């Protein structure tokens, strides 16, 4: 959605634009225009803040990462090998030298100095490895594409995240009333000639992995939630009312 005609945006369009901004889906002139609007439009700024509160809950869904059980034992073994004094070191008679040269030689030959240097180098290597491990893990957990599923009143009800390793998950942002004997069925549509395919069935709004198996997955792909019988749609196609829907966009 382009913010170039801000004065003519309806409240739902303004709210959707705020959601796109919070998700990082804007760039270039659109992003610059939205950021200028934040300083002048109090209603728009309030909408942005509401979206930020909606998506703040997503940060808590990332599972903690436990390092390998033998990581610290490998580190300790490596440090021990680095600082272990050589058994074959020989002691030579000092040569006559000035006091300044002698002090330098004492410092140069100090086992404490070299142990400290070896320990510092090993510690830096460990910290770099741990930092790299964390960065790679965070990158793996960042979604490649997202789809914000909106209700008819443009309220964000759920988010679908897709990841580089093929995982797809849906995270609810709102509670959804599910009557007895009914369930929420999640669908995806990438080609109208093929029609929608069911990728998940849940009894209530909750985080759930979606079963795309070998189905295509790309930009502008529709995801939607419908209300169906508890056992799922009897026809293999959506039959109940649409609770929320949205299309995928590439994460910036």
Give me the secondary-structure topology.
Layout (H helix, E strand, L loop, with lengths): L10 H12 L5 H13 L1 H15 L14 H13 L15 H10 L2 H31 L3 E6 L5 E7 L5 E5 L9 E8 L7 E6 L5 E2 L12 E8 L12 E9 L2
Antiparallel strand pairs: 1-2, 1-8, 2-3, 3-6, 4-5, 4-7, 7-8
Helix pairs in contact: 1-3, 2-3, 4-6
Could you name the ranges where pLDDT drops below 50 across 5 or more consecutive residues?
A: 2-6, 86-91, 132-139
CATH class of the largest domain: Mainly Beta
Give the total of domains.
3
Examine the coordinates and then state which fold CATH places here, giving the name of the CATH topology of the largest domain: Immunoglobulin-like
Helix content: 25-40%
Count of alpha and pi helical runs: 6
Lateral strand order in the biggest sheet: 5-4-7-8-1-2-3-6
Distance between the termini: 16 Å
Name the descriptors:
single chain; 252 residues; alpha+beta; Immunoglobulin-like; 8 strands; 20% strand
Question: What does this molecule look like?
Answer:
With 252 residues, the protein is α+β, with helices and mostly antiparallel strands. It folds into 3 domains: 1-61, no CATH class; 71-84 and 95-141; 143-252, Immunoglobulin-like, CATH 2.60.40. The chain has helices at 11-22, 28-40, 42-56, 71-83, 99-108, 111-141, and strands at residues 145-150, 156-162, 168-172, 182-189, 197-202, 208-209, 222-229, 242-250. Strands 5-4-7-8-1-2-3-6 form an 8-stranded antiparallel sheet, with no helix packed on it. A hairpin with a 5-residue loop joins strand 1 and strand 2 (156-162). The protein is extended and about 90 Å long. The model is unreliable at 2-6, 86-91 and 132-139 (pLDDT under 50).
